[in-house]
From TrEMBL:
Any Pfam family hit: Phage_lysozyme
Catalytic activity: Hydrolysis of (1->4)-beta-linkages between N-acetylmuramic acid and N-acetyl-D-glucosamine residues in a peptidoglycan and between N-acetyl-D-glucosamine residues in chitodextrins
Signal peptide: 1-15
Keywords: Antimicrobial, Bacteriolytic enzyme, Glycosidase, Host cytoplasm, Hydrolase, Signal
Organism lineage: Eukaryota, Fungi, Dikarya, Basidiomycota, Agaricomycotina
Protein name as catalogued: Lysozyme
Record-linked Gene3D superfamilies: 1.10.530.40
InterPro entries attached to this UniProt entry: Bacteriophage_GH24, Endolysin_autolysin, Endolysin_T4_type, Glyco_hydro_24, Lysozyme-like_dom_sf, Lysozyme_dom_sf
């Protein structure tokens, strides 16, 4: 009887939840359907055959700016963003290469994403920011009364808010790429993207910061002197903006071999 029980148990052995799967070549992870849908993924039956009925292969073919969800070991570009994919910690958004073959301008790196998230804060439903403007997610400025342009129902998940933030960030990476005529690495470009995300393309493009960079002055000196000036909102100095500018200066001055522009 014990032998029969062991054989039966072996016959119903289940593959581990969080294990790798693939749907017609699209990489995925075996997850409960509720976990998959809450992270923006799509559940497909038949690709985790030994798991319970509510565990299916979860795939997410779009994340960030031109990325897709896969296990980090299978991300050939090495440009990975957290918080955009359902499942285990090593199932993340694999983005195009930060330079040399990826998108141009490149997707902001992980350090920049973390900085923006820290200072914008997460807001699940539209609410006024410190100067009364309606925002949602990580600093998305609502364009309509209901903020329906974000394409997600409220309350947002943090993964959805990250998707919106990365989508919004392309507005600022594009305007900076057009305005800046000198070479910047990924941290320098990311720090300025955080700044432009906060102050807007018009203010950034017409700033003495960019004119000094384009004039060939030492980038670290320019950033250290110019970024701290942008610490006011509604005419008043805000402690949060002072801290944010200091964090942007620190990121700008952090060395990296990864290039950003020109690209």
């Amino acid at each position: 009887m014990k032998l029969i029980a062991l054989i039966l148990a072996a016959g119903v052995a289940r593959a581990a939840v969080n294990g790798a799967c693939s749907v017609n070549g699209t990489p995925g992870v075996c997850l409960p359907t509720a976990s998959c849908s809450s992270g923006g993924g799509k559940s497909t039956a038949g690709f985790c055959p030994n798991d319970p009925a509510d565990v299916r292969c979860c795939t997410k073919t779009a994340c960030g700016s031109g990325g897709n969800c896969r296990f980090t070991s299978a991300c050939s570009t090495g440009n990975i963003a957290s918080g955009l994919c359902p499942g285990p910690t090593d199932f993340k958004c694999c983005l195009p290469a930060a330079s040399g073959g990826g998108g141009c301008p490149p997707t902001i790196n992980a350090a920049t994403q973390s900085l923006i998230k820290e200072f914008e804060g997460f807001v699940a439903k539209p609410a006024p920011d410190p100067i009364g403007l309606p925002t949602v997610g990580y600093g998305h400025l609502c364009q309509t009364k209901s903020c329906s342009e974000v394409g997600f129902a409220f309350p947002l998940t943090q993964a959805q808010a990250t998707t919106i933030m990365l989508r919004d960030s392309t507005t600022f990476t594009k305007c900076l790429r057009s305005a800046i005529k000198v070479k910047l690495n990924a941290n320098q470009f990311g720090a300025l993207t955080s700044w432009a995300y906060n102050v807007g393309c018009g203010n950034a493009g017409g700033s003495s910061l960019i004119s000094r960079l384009n004039a060939g002055e030492a980038p670290n000196t320019v950033a250290s002197q110019e970024l701290p000036k942008w610490n006011k909102a509604g005419g008043a100095v805000l402690a949060g903006l002072t801290r944010r500018r200091a964090a942007e200066v620190t990121l700008f001055k952090t060395a990296t071999s990864t290039g950003a522009i020109p690209c």
